[in-house]
Each structure stands twice: as C-alpha cells, then as structure tokens.
Specification:
Radius of gyration: 28 Å
CATH topology of the domain at 1-143: Serine Threonine Protein Phosphatase 5, Tetratricopeptide repeat
Pfam family, one: PPR
Protein name: Pentacotripeptide-repeat region of PRORP domain-containing protein
GO molecular function, one term: RNA binding
Distance between the termini: 95 Å
Organism: Trifolium subterraneum (Subterranean clover)
Low-confidence stretches: none
Strand order of the largest sheet: 1-2
Structural class: mainly alpha
Order of helices and strands: HHHHHHHHHHHHHHHHHHHHHHHHEEH
Number of strands: 2
Mean pLDDT: 87
PPR repeats: 114-148, 250-284
CATH superfamily of the domain at 1-143: Tetratricopeptide repeat domain
Length: 464
Amino acid sequence: MINNPEIRAYNVMIRAYGCLEGGDDTYYFKALMLYKQMLNNDIAPNSLTFPFLLKGCNRWQCGGATTGQVIHGQVLKFGFLNDVFVGNSLISLFMNFGLLSNARKLFDEMFVRDIVSWNTMVVGYLRNGEVDMALNLFRKMSRRNIITWNSIITGLVQAGHAKESLELFHEMQFLSGDDVVKPDKITIASVLSACSQLGSIDHGRWVHAYLRKNNIECDVVIGTALVNMYGKCGNVLQAFEIFNDMPEKDASAWTAMISVFALHGLGKKAFDCFLEMERAGVKPNHVTFVGLLSACSHSGLVEQGRWCFDVMKNHYMIEPQIYHYACMVDILSRARLFDESMNLIRSMPMKPDVYVWGALLGGCQMHGNIELGEKVACHLIDLEPHNHAFYMNLCDIYAKAGKFDAAKRIRNLLKERGIETKVPGCSMIEINGVVQEFSVGGSSERPMKELVSVLDRLSNEMKI
C-alpha cells in the first residue's frame, strides 16, 4: 500500500488493470476508478495515462465507445491532443467502434502524425469495409513500412479484391531508394491467398520460387498457404507434396489438406488424412469438420457424414454451428433422405438460415421432390424476397414435374416484383501470368474485340 502515490504509480496500476484479460469488465472499471481517484487527489494525468486507459476501453464492447469519447474530452481538457501517442490511441479506439468520422476528424486535425497514425487509419478503414477510403489514404502516404504494405495487401484480399492486392504486391517489388520494403511471411501468405482466390497458379508458382530464392523460411503459416493455393488452383499432387514436406503441422495445416481433398471430391483421402491427423495427436477444430462434411457431401458418403457429425459433438465436444448443419442437410438431401433432413433442421438449437434451407432445396430440386421443394422455396422467398435464385429454383422444380403453368406464374411474379434474373456472367483466364477477366455486357470494347478475334481464329483452326 503506497500512502501518497505519484503519477507513475497510478500509471502502472491503470496500465495493469487496462491490460488484464477477464471474463467481465471488472478490471477496466478499477482502472477508471483509479483515474477518478487520481483526479480527486489533484494529480494531473500525463501523456502515458490516456493510452493505457484507451487500451482497456478498446476491449469494453458494451460501453467502450461512450467511455472513449469521454476520455477524448479529458484529453482535450488537459491539452494532450498534440501528443502523437495519445492521438494514435484515440484513432485506434474510434476505428475499433466504427466511429470513422470521429477518427478522420481527429487524424486531419493532428499537428504531428507519424507512420503509426497513417497505418492505424488505413487498417481501420479496411476493417470497417471502406476499401476505397483505405486505398485513397494509402496513396497519399509519403512513407510506408512493411506494416503499411501488409495491411493494404491483406485487407484487399479479405475484402475480395484479390487482383488489386496482386497489383500492389508487384508495385512493392519495383520500389527503389528509401522506399524499398522487403516482403515478409505475412506478405507472402496474403499474396498466396490472393492467388488462391483468382486460381492464378502461375503467380502462385512465382511466389513459391520467390520464397526459395530469398531464403524465406517456409513455416507452418507459409506451408499452409501454399497447400491452399495449389489445391484451389487444381494441383492436388503439388499441394500434398508440400504438406508432406512440412516439418511441423498444426490444425490449420491438416484442415487445409482435408479441405483440398474435399474440394476435388476425394472423400476417402480426406478421411485418411483426418485419421492420420488424429494419430499425430493434433486436435481438429470446427473448420476441420466443415472440410470433412464437405468431403462427404461431394463424394456421397452418408454414413461417414453421420459418423463425422457424431464424433464432432460427442468425442471432441465441438458444438455444431449453423454451417455444420447446412453441410449435414446437404449430405442427407442429396441422398434423398428428406425426412432425416427435416428432423435435423427441427432439432437445431439455432434458427436455420438461408444456407440450411438452400441445401434442402438443392436436394429437392435434384430429386424432383415437388411437395417439399415448393414449401422450402416459398419459405426462402419469404426470407429473401429479392433473391432471384429461389424463384428460379422453384421454376425448375415445376418445369421438371411438367407443371408449366405454375412455372409461368413464378416467372410473372418475378416480373411484377421487378427482380432482375440475369446476372452477368464472368470468366477469368490466366495467360502468361496475367489474369484476364471477361464479363457479359462488359464496358471495355477492346478486350471484347480481342476475344472475338481469338474465337474466330480457333473456329478456323477447327474447320481445317
């Protein structure tokens, strides 16, 4: 017990309480009480006090945003807004709670900004789904470090902008002078993920070669990314070779290999891999079982699917999530086991979503179960009345059953509701390492002319 604690002692305790992980917000309340006690004792905070308070505030989901704004007021009152460390902590808090305008206003008003300020803004925009704003800010940066590049490349991949992330990676390669930044493991893993999304195996092979050339250690993260990339680009053998060569394999690595086998309909190999995983003493997680159940679905392995679902719940004590139920419904409905599918849906502890009902509808459509398919499709239309896919599924069920008047009625309903049924088709092809994208109704005239020219030449070759 310190009789007359100074500011340093208060800062140490506030930091300790702010950083402690707990099941509730008790520790952070203690930090706030200490701050209040400090003010009551006429001890003014310094530049270290507020970052500690704000760090704890970031983890307080219920009242963190409001409390953070109050602390912002205290920062203004005591004149620490020009402290870059305090400013960065406030920006991080505002971004964490989605207060983008607050963060940008503070950022614009900061007299002193360092690279952490810029990086925090870029990462915050990306995490809040504002990709364009993140890119605009990124382009304005006069100096970028590896954190900046990793943030923007990874953020673009996670937002589904894989092509743009690859373009930025190549831009990173051509930096010169003081701007040179060397890619690290995080960069490589993100770029490999982008290659996986695009199916760009040439880019993926180039990155793999880059790893060897620059002696970047192929640890479990990079190894797993390579397995994913080769598997999703269609080269299962290469994925398996890399997997076997990995000196250490965690649950993510095993899951990646199982998922690759599942993707290519190799259900038996997926289960062999799972059994080997168990023998290696690696505990599977909920994603592992998604891969296994997908393998069962793609390979028609009903009994194995039931076994997998049971083992997940009763042996590994993993509570099935909604996506596990969707996989299981898909397995059962594909095997015409509609009663069992419905019983499983009724037993779900959560409300079934469109993916669960959609899996059942797919089975009904496949096997011509008109009565159940009609009920499921109508329920899905009620859930998502502007999703054209459910209307078209119902039309297909009616058409296969010869109920053309009913199918016509659904098409008329689509027109009455003004729902667009034609989604532009899009194809991508990789030529000499460059991913070319073609879409129906594309606005670019030159690529379309080139495509027509190629098709004409192919047609002439076939005639010869």
